[in-house]
Predict the 3D structure of the following.
Amino acid sequence: MFDQKMLEIGYSQSTIRDLYTYGLARKKEIGEDKVFDFSIGNPSIPAPKIVNDTLVKLLTEEDSVKIHGYTVSPGNKEVRDVIASYLNKTFHATTKGDFIFLTCGAAASLAIVTKAFVKPGEEVITFAPHFPEYRTYTEAVGGVLVNVNPDKDFFPDFVDLEKKITSKTRLVIYDSPNNPTGAFYTEEVIKRMASVLSKKEKEYDHPIYLVSDEPYRELLYKGEEYPFVTNYYDNSIVCYSFSKSLSLPGERIGYILVNPNANDVNDVYAVICGAASMLGYICAPALFQHMVPYVLGHTSNLEEYKKNKETLVTALKEIGFEVVNPTGAFYLFMKALEADAEKFSEVAKQFELLLVPSDPFDYKGYVRIAYCVSYKQIVNSIPAFKKLHNYYKNR
Amino acid sequence: MFDQKMLEIGYSQSTIRDLYTYGLARKKEIGEDKVFDFSIGNPSIPAPKIVNDTLVKLLTEEDSVKIHGYTVSPGNKEVRDVIASYLNKTFHATTKGDFIFLTCGAAASLAIVTKAFVKPGEEVITFAPHFPEYRTYTEAVGGVLVNVNPDKDFFPDFVDLEKKITSKTRLVIYDSPNNPTGAFYTEEVIKRMASVLSKKEKEYDHPIYLVSDEPYRELLYKGEEYPFVTNYYDNSIVCYSFSKSLSLPGERIGYILVNPNANDVNDVYAVICGAASMLGYICAPALFQHMVPYVLGHTSNLEEYKKNKETLVTALKEIGFEVVNPTGAFYLFMKALEADAEKFSEVAKQFELLLVPSDPFDYKGYVRIAYCVSYKQIVNSIPAFKKLHNYYKNR
């Protein structure tokens, strides 16, 4: 009677959320500070002060009916225009508010874009290891997810990318900095990607949409310039969320942006609006829409993530672990000490370390460590990582 | 290349939103108070004070990381438990927090429930005239929407209901009070509906889920007791939104509730969780989740809607219009003065009256008037209604 796939997802929720739920229960059992939960990208660094200040200001000074009222489906037009100006100034881009659709965050954006462009049997390409939900949204519409292998530094293997694109390829999705590796795609990478896709668009004579999923766009630790995809490829779409940059993981506010230079841009935007309606997405939360113009360009204190990252990377390397040195986001990708990452993650639980096995990221033999936790947790967890390493050395 | 249906929805957005968008533009042209926009259920009565007070209190007194942090996908468990207790106390029900899933509002809830239970070719029954999006969500998953005719008072025709249920029927959806008629389904109506469905469940030997869509549950003007569906039918699901009762139409907070007595209730709940994941719904907006326990049982000032309703109904009847006397919600269903309600709605625009033709509600010859506007607009619009009536009398 029920769809088995849906039922399965419903029961397991996902390895990450299972671990997180386990962590919540375990903390109640043995105490909050005894469990080293690195499972979920739930920043423990507070939102910048301007977020709550703005919300309070809107709630106390503005007309309640306006602040909580409907906007048009794609979101308040002035807000969208302000976002476009901000992007144009920051990234020397040429975006337009007319082609922005405010959404209930990144998950919503990705689900909408996938629904909009992918029919049953059609293909979505992404780069392993990747955010697990790319698979969920692709399969939800009957599509097929195709993985491109990474090179040794966890950048796309372009030879493999070229091989994997077929006449059925509708979307190519990437996130940079990457979840789970923290790898940041330089301008060089984006240019090569655009060049492969342009060639293939000509070959197959139809658009292949390049979707840049950018929740971690601002989480860069070396002051790198972010290569904004619309500057490099016409048929490009940006999915953005304020959840990570502003430490608002539980809030639902983000946007989909269509490159104004996309072929048949009005149709592309309309099909996104249509898909959103069909999935029940109308009018992103109004209060948070109105907040956006005040907080653009702000981030939570990145120095704290940087300190976490450096302390943890140094400690793990000293202990003897092999880690991918991340340049962005707040994830560390660490090689498991046995081939089966799920087993390794189970063993880590014995030491109260909650590490996400890499399998749901379509990659074997690693764990993801979300280091967006308190510095105290970083420091206190190091002995547990030592015990974990010893366990494997001695068995 | 694009899905034509999706493109169409994307371009038109819906008659209601088109009218609303037209109204926004028209107001800019000729002045806010010159346009009598009755198109959209966007309350112009402010949220009860406790809403903004609670939000400000949470933002200023609570830990920002907690307030904006992830919850588990179905929502904060304590919040869900509080909702269950409130429902049990208010409606003598036996609901449980374990079977509540917090969502981004009513549209989300309906889209999720439809995705969860309806496969391509399967049927959803609803009662004409009905909320247009029932069709959108049904067709989005490849299902077929089947309309049951109303009786003369706009209650379900039970003979027709019985005829329309087939082996393919998965869901029966109703909203009470109804959008667009304002009709309130008494206990008697719910009991008869339950009785027909129970008979048919036995006949076909599988569950038929009765979905009560309840955004207007609290908007009753005669102090009627609300017959809570889980008390009358085991395989029942409630979709609730705080948008209308609390005047928060632009915010996205609501829930799906599964009757704990439903057959295989764990599977039913899991398939809803799975469908939500697939559609990109994870963790309803956190700040608003945390607000819920403080505002349960509160509503915006219903006396204002009541005054609007009475003034408008009296005036329209005096002018000579035929209206369905609404007992709840904030909609008035008025007979058009020509057979084609779309044409009638176009004519009404000449008098700056924005009235939604009944066609998108799968019903002919009426218009919907959303009277959740300022009392001033009600009073000022009356001469325009007179002119509209005269126009038809004299042509």
Observations:
- Chain A touches chain B through 84 residues (CB under 8 Å).
